[in-house]
Write a structure and sequence with these properties.
Blueprint (H helix, E strand, L loop, with lengths): L1 E2 L5 E2 L3 E7 L4 E6 L12 H12 L14 E8 L2 E6 L6 H5 L18 E5 L5 E4 L20 E2 L5 H9 L5 E6 L3 H7 L6 E4 L3 E7 L9 H10 L2 H8 L30 H13 L6 E6 L4 H15 L3 E6 L7 E7 L5 H8 L5 H11 L4 H18 L2 E5 L3 E5 L25
Helix pairs in contact: 5-7, 6-8, 9-11, 10-11
């Protein structure tokens, strides 16, 4: 599977599929496809590639979300079956993730819609010939207009390049570099914001000292002025105090903190009293943040909020030891368990137990009920401090008429321009 320009799944290597036995079996018929060296893609290779990604030794970040798969087997040279131990309605969206692309380690190149025509630091990509259309009048030779040059560089240089009309697209922008867009005088028609969903907040990575008590972690949660932070970075960036953006596959509405309706000044007074009652001496917290002007603004707002309740914040690099670490991640698919598992970097036993129970639930109804319980447990544990939803931006030339904003912030390079046919 893969994503289209709207962030919805579409056929990739799978030509078609059926789901049977109440979601316990997915059967995929593979289209005719070839590797970059011209050899045919076989069902055995696809099964081997998927099995490697699901193995216990796999470093694939999605491996923990594939535990419901029992096995992947070859049925015919062009058909594979994915057998489940428990139903998972989001399996197709998982298979559409880039991390689960079919990429055999013993071959060069993939089987996707583009090939590397000229390698190097800025590789040139060219559409691959579709073998199913090779003898059709609809199959045309590629032209330079179809090529895509990939350039990886800092946001500042990418923006300058776009403003000089030397590129058509700047992709992958986040809150870190958003202030640079305002300095560029880019035309509003070229600035695009994705309605991305996911996690943006502080995860607790040290539960010693002041942070050992959930009430103290809650004091920090209460003190942060989310609206001031988001508006300081970008006007209109929506703040949040809940982990789940919506009910999703939970049996209940997202869990809110008890103090949601209390004015900020009153919340801070409560938090300040909590800090003052701490007998371990002055409270200093190390907060890991990325580098960039947007991150500097965000850290300044967090530090000011903590200072208002008597806590000193120091900024450290993302890979350094810290007490709190920023999480900024777009959700790959609509699963409440993804949100809860990624918010739980260092949870208490109750929250961990609830998450494991939700993962291993035998039915969808039981899974939904246990996800709701895990949401409440994580909220009570205050293992994650939600602040906003991820901010994702792009600069898009008007001639890329097929570019569409979407909740995945996912923009396939083959879905940017209208097909001249």
């Amino acid at each position: 599977m893969r994503f289209d320009a709207n962030g919805q799944i579409e056929p990739g290597l799978a030509e078609r599929w059926i789901v049977i036995d109440g979601g316990m079996s997915y059967i995929f018929r593979l289209r005719e496809a070839r590797w970059a060296d011209g050899s045919a893609v076989t069902a055995d290779q696809v099964v081997d590639a998927l099995t490697d990604q699901m193995a216990a030794r796999s470093r694939n970040p999605l491996a923990p979300f594939l535990t419901a798969i029992d096995e992947v087997v070859v049925m015919t040279p062009q058909v594979i079956e994915v057998r489940m131990t428990r139903p998972r309605p989001d399996l197709l969206k998982l298979f559409a993730q880039p991390e689960l692309a079919i990429w055999p380690t013993k071959r060069t190149g993939g089987a996707g819609p583009m090939r590397v025509a000229l390698p190097g630091r800025s590789p040139l990509l060219r559409p691959a010939i579709d073998p199913t259309q090779a003898d059709s009048d609809d199959q045309r030779a590629t032209s330079p207009e179809d090529d895509v040059r990939l350039i990886g560089e800092p946001a500042s240089r990418a923006i300058v390049r776009f403003m000089a009309h030397e590129s058509d697209l700047v992709a992958g922008g986040s809150f870190v570099d958003w202030p640079l867009v305002g300095l560029s005088d880019a035309a509003p028609a070229n600035v695009q914001i994705d309605p991305a969903v996911g996690l943006f907040g502080l995860t607790i990575v040290n539960r010693d000292g002041f942070l050992a008590d959930a009430a103290n972690r809650d004091a920090i949660d209460q003190a942060i002025d989310r609206d001031a932070l988001t508006q300081a970075v970008r006007a209109g960036w929506e703040a949040t105090s809940q982990i789940l953006p919506d009910t999703l596959d939970s049996a209940a509405a997202p869990a809110f903190p008890a103090w949601t309706a209390i004015p900020l000044d009153q919340r801070r007074a409560t938090a300040r009293a909590r800090v003052a009652a701490w007998r371990g001496g002055p409270v200093t917290l190390r907060i890991a943040m990325p580098q960039g002007p947007g991150a500097t603004i965000a850290f300044g707002q967090i530090a000011a909020s903590l200072r208002a309740i008597g806590i000193t914040a120091t900024r450290v690099a993302m890979r350094q030891d810290a007490d709190l670490r920023l999480v900024d991640a777009v959700a790959p698919y609509d699963s409440a368990r993804w949100y809860l598992a990624n918010a739980c970097a260092m949870c208490g036993d109750a929250a961990k137990t609830a998450l494991l129970a939700a993962r291993d639930a035998p039915t969808l109804a039981e899974r939904s009920r246990l996800i709701a319980a895990a949401d409440v447990a994580l909220r009570d544990d205050v293992a994650f401090i939600p602040i906003a939803r991820p901010l994702r931006w792009s600069l898009v030339a008007l001639r890329l008429a097929q570019w569409h904003p979407n909740s995945r912030a996912w923009h396939p390079l083959t879905k940017l321009r209208a097909d001249p046919r």
